[in-house]
Specification:
The complex is a heterodimer of chains A (104) and B (366).
Chain A lengths: L5 E4 L3 E6 L2 E6 L5 E4 L1 H9 L1 E5 H12 L4 H17 L3 E4 L13
Helix pairs in contact in A: 1-2, 2-3
Chain B lengths: L1 H10 L4 E7 L21 H14 L3 E6 L8 H10 L3 E6 L6 H9 L4 E5 L5 H8 L4 H14 L4 E6 L8 H11 L2 E5 L19 H8 L9 H4 L9 H4 L11 E4 L4 E3 L9 E2 L5 H7 L1 H7 L22 H7 L7 H11 L4 H6 L19
Parallel strand pairs in B: 1-2, 1-7, 2-3, 3-4, 4-5, 5-6
Antiparallel strand pairs in B: 7-8, 8-9
Helix pairs in contact in B: 2-3, 8-14
Classes of the chains: A alpha+beta (104), B alpha/beta (366).
């Protein structure tokens, strides 16, 4: 069994929710991202202390009729991609809570 | 980005807001359009409350400007609060008051970028415009400190009669320092409508030279200065918005007055009297601004400059008619392309030429 993965929202970002989507600008490279409904759920739940697998199970599998294993693999890929832009932080240890990073 | 703008128009979101914290300033620039007296600036609490409202309304880009923003002792409290609300924050300053500690704090707060006004690469020219001795040295030092702390910096180079020939020097200085460079050759009337400072505008010949300088346009001056394509089709004109002012952007003054844009002093509400969202959604004045499409513009909708015109509705308003042409922009279009706009021809008592058709339809008969 893989070690649990934790995700937390980056601090050097700008973000705003537009309906079910979230616009995020990376402070690292000023690149602009539009997170769809699914990715927005991950973003909102990225508190640094809830394992990603649990987020996927509670947020994604509950909201969408998706297979947990596939959803987790996709979520990990997305999380690492966003981490490359400083939008998320990813670790195999719990991260400091960044509730202030939640887009209003 | 254009997708974001289109979505903002569709959902009526004020994507971008310029918030002037103060009109007070440590410089007295000869071309400034502001009255620098404090007529009752918003308090810290009022500004923080406004930021909450702007975030709730969906504002993403927050441009904090003035006056000189460092005249506000609560500036960092305001920026920190804005960043906690996840705005993309840009600052506009003359950087005269920026020392190492302030540069470090700006970097720490994750400010997206800082735009600094620089008028010349020559201290005597810059200082003569700002009327603040030593300002050139301090402005450049402030910019260097910000760069050293990893902050994105750009120089805003406003051109006027005093410095029109210095832009290449400012460009070279920007390149040497590794900072961005923006040039603007528009001096606007004062917010109270006083047009006397317009005499500082660069004359037509120098403006033409600037527009044709390839160094400013990355080698695309030929396309930029090409003759206009002719008027838009009326169908397009009625679907095209004159600019983002009042549609996805607006401006809030230090006194809480809301305008479509900093260059469009048509008061549409005040956040001391109404919430921001009530003004944004229900202001009759904003509704009027939003009702105007390019097709409604008197003298512009059939002008040859059509889709390539940079008409500013605020300048048109200051000229007396927000549905009319902006002569300053007509003059810029003329300097750029050598083709007079319908408005300029009308002022000269000439009629518009019939635009050359873009393609000649060929009728084929059997």
């Amino acid at each position: 069994m893989n070690a649990p993965l934790y995700i937390a929202r980056g601090t050097d970002i700008a973000a705003r929710r537009f309906g079910e989507e979230t616009m995020i600008m990376s402070g690292k490279d000023s690149e602009l991202f539009s997170l769809n409904e699914t990715a927005s759920l991950l973003w909102q739940a990225a508190d640094g202390v809830t394992p990603l697998a649990q987020i996927v199970e509670r947020q994604l599998c509950a909201a969408f009729d998706v297979d947990a294993q596939t959803a987790l693999r996709d979520a990990e890929e997305l999380a690492r991609q966003l981490a490359g832009h400083g939008i998320l932080r990813v670790s195999d240890q719990p991260l400091a809570d960044t509730d202030a990073g939640k887009a209003p | 980005m254009s997708e974001m703008g289109a979505r903002a128009v569709k959902f009526g979101i004020p994507l971008s807001v310029q918030l002037d914290l103060t009109y007070r300033c440590n410089e007295r620039c000869v071309h400034c359009y502001l009255d620098h007296e404090d007529h009752g600036e918003m308090s810290t609490a009022e500004i923080l409350g406004l930021l909450d409202q702007l975030a709730a309304a969906g504002v993403f880009f927050l441009n904090i400007s003035g006056g000189e923003i460092f005249m506000r002792k609560d500036l960092f409290e305001i920026i920190a609060y804005a960043r906690r609300l996840q705005f993309s924050v840009k600052l506009k300053t003359n950087a005269v008051m920026i020392r190492a500690a302030k540069a470090a704090r700006i970097a720490e707060l994750g400010v997206e970028s800082v735009q600094i006004s620089l008028y010349s690469h020559k201290a005597e020219v810059h200082d003569a415009i700002t009327k603040l001795p030593g300002s050139f040295k301090r402005t450049v030092a402030g910019a260097r400190l910000l760069k050293e702390h990893g902050v994105r910096v750009s120089f805003a180079n406003v051109l006027m009669t005093h410095n029109a020939d210095d832009y290449q020097g400012v460009q070279a200085l920007s390149a040497e320092m590794g900072v961005g460079y923006n040039v603007d050759a528009t001096i606007t009337p004062m917010m109270d409508g006083d047009r006397s400072i317009l005499q500082l505008n660069v004359d037509a010949a120098r403006l033409q030279h600037i527009f044709h300088d390839d160094s400013l346009l990355g080698g695309s001056s030929d396309a930029f200065c090409a003759p206009p394509d002719g008027p838009m089709s009326m169908e397009d004109a009625y679907q095209t918005l004159p600019c983002s002012a009042g549609h996805t952007a607006c401006y809030v003054s230090p006194y809480g007055d809301v305008y479509p844009c900093v260059q469009f002093p048509y008061r549409v509400g005040n956040i001391r009297e109404q919430t921001f969202i009530d003004i944004w959604r229900d202001s009759p004045q904003l509704a009027e601004v939003r009702s105007i499409s390019v097709g409604d513009l008197q003298g512009c909708s059939s002008c040859v400059h059509g889709g390539s015109c940079t008409r500013c509705p605020g300048l048109a308003y200051l000229e007396g008619n927000m549905r009319g042409p902006s002569t300053q922009d007509c003059e810029k279009s003329f300097a750029r392309t050598g083709v007079a706009s319908k408005n300029l021809l009308s002022k000269r008592g000439e009629s518009s030429p019939t635009p050359t058709p873009r393609s000649i339809p060929i009728l084929v008969t059997a």
